[in-house]
Every structure is written in C-alpha cells, then in structure tokens.
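Reopening this ticket.

The earlier resolution said the output was attached, but the attachment link was broken on my side. Pasting everything inline this time so it's all in one place.
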Amino acid sequence: MDDATLTFNRLRPRLQGIAYRMLGSMGEAEEVVQDAWLRWHEAAKDTLDSAEAWLVTVVTRLSIDRLRTAKVEREHYIGTWMPEPTMTGAPDTPEQLLERADNVSVAFLAVLERLAPESRAAFLLREVFEADYEDIASTLGKTEAACRQLVHRAKSQVLEARPRFSVSRETHERLLRAFADAAARGNLQDLKALMSEDAELVSDGGGKVPSFGKILRGSQRLAQLYFSVWRRLGPGGAHMVLVDLNGEPGLLRFIDGQLESAQTFEIEGERIVRIRAQRNPDKLARIANMENIAGTAQALSSK
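Inline output:
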C-alpha cells in the first residue's frame, strides 16, 4: 500500500466510529467513509497540515448532511425508528468496557437522536472523541464560543435522557440469562419478576414486519407478550442467544432458526426497565449475515 492508503486505513476506525454515532446506521456510516476515501484519494495531501483533522472534518460534514436528509425521512418512518445494532467483541479491559457502554450503546444512540445534526457532531467530537474546541470550530465552520454552547446544550439534553443508573456487566449478563431462560420455559411469573413494574418495550419493524407503533408499558403486559410467543410456537420454537451488542450484553432471538430480533436492555438495580427490540430485517441483515450467527441459527434449527 502507498502512504496515503496506509494513513487512511489507520484512521478508518475513528472515522467509522464518528459516522456510525452520527447516523445510527453502520451501512450509512460505511458509505460516508467510502465517500471520504474518494475525496482523500483526490486531495492535495502535501498541502494538509494534518491528515487526521482533514479526514475527521470531511466525515463529520458528510455525516451532518446525510443526517439532515435522514431526519426528514425518519419523520415518515413507519413506527418507531431505532438505530441499527452492531455486534461487538467483548472488551479487553475495564476501561474499554466503560468506554463502549458509555458511547456506543443502543440506548445512547437513541438519546443522540434528540440532537440537531450540528449539536450531535459537536457533542460527539468533544465528549466521545476528545477533540479540542479549536478543532471542532474548524470542522463545523463556527466560532469556538458557538461550539462551546452547542456542546453545553447537547450535554444537558443527553444527561436528561440517558439512563440514570448503570450496573455491572456481570449483573447485566445474569439478568439477561435469566430472562432468556424464563422466555424459553414460558414462565410468565419469572418473566414479570425480572422487570420493573413500569418497564417499557420499544420495537422497530420499519413497516417490513409486524411491530408495535407505540411504546408498550407494564411488566404484566410485557411478560404476557413473551409468554404468548412461547405459547404460539411451543417449546423450542424460539431461542435467545446472549451476545455483545453495541458494547454491552444483548439477546438475539431466533425463530425457527432465523434471526427475528436483536434486543438490548436497560437495567436499574436488579430489574429490567426498558427493552429495545430491533425487528426491521434491513437493520438485522448485517448481523444475520455474519458467519458465526449463521452457524448459531443452523445449530438451533436442528434441535
């Protein structure tokens, strides 16, 4: 590879991370990064003070433009729009665990949807990617003072909407294993006991598959929903697999060996308070096409 390609590949994870957090879609993020690569290929690189600063600026601006268009499209989205989940490997260190859970979880991406495109960019560059205000101002074409205001207001919005409590990974995994087990056994009371009384379920079918157009609330109602799946399909008809989704434990549900949903959970104390179920096949395609997931589905369907 030439030096320009090596430089771009070295920075690709950072660029991909910015674009994904901006757009909530890995597919769109890859398109933005590819567009940045084409521009990088044509750039007069000898005139640049910093390749990284130039590429971050290009990716951020492309993401802002795409997000503006996406926000208009999402106003006409059928049902509730939710981010596309992505499979992640288990973190190597406690620091990586905290970093991922804080800034790439589905819950965090959902909160970012409240922000206007430029506010989202300023917040992510400062709070997640630790850019200084001089660089943020250059990227957004604004004054440093204006960027500080954008970040301050965005932080207030994010803090207001983010989950109030965090739990250890061990607790998170233990509760999800218990939930998957109760769903597999069709145990209505155990399902209900694992959820807070006012637990919520948010689902995204994108008009492609049946999905609830509003938030469902109440542990009894949600427990009955999972129980009804067990009763309709019978023992073994649905299987849940514990995986790492967006930096934290989540569940993939397979029905007849096919990936039906990717579910992430917000937990307070020892109870599940919110479930986000991504059912839109378009947003599950990347996970469903992964070799290890295909193998899991095949193994499950043969049981």
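Reporter confirms the inline version is readable. The domain at 3-161 is CATH 1.20.140.160 (Butyryl-CoA Dehydrogenase, subunit A; domain 3). The chain has two domains: 3-161, 169-301.
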